Amino acid sequence: MITAFSITPLGAGEHVSALVAEAVRTVRSSGLPSETNAMFTNVEGDWDEVMAVIKRCAEQMSASAPRLSIVIKVDYHPAAGAGEMAAKLERLERDLDSPGQLP
What is the pLDDT of residues 49-60, one digit of tens each? Predict the structure, then answer.
């Protein structure tokens, strides 16, 4: 599955970017395929692996922030297998190279 998530620490004062950076380090050290953009971190893996990483990030961040706002979006497609995050981007790039070619 592919999961896009963001965790926003509330009430953490000036340390928001440092807390977010630590969460991204946690995701990257998990060994799961991931990418971070300006709004979300995307993680690919099975349900338990991905949710465990998100939970670790939340627990870690909550040690320094009294409240968290968490947004999670899941593309649950068990038959897709590993590598779907990269495959989806490859299909998009292919279609961008072929404008006007709707199925």
Answer: 999 999 999 999
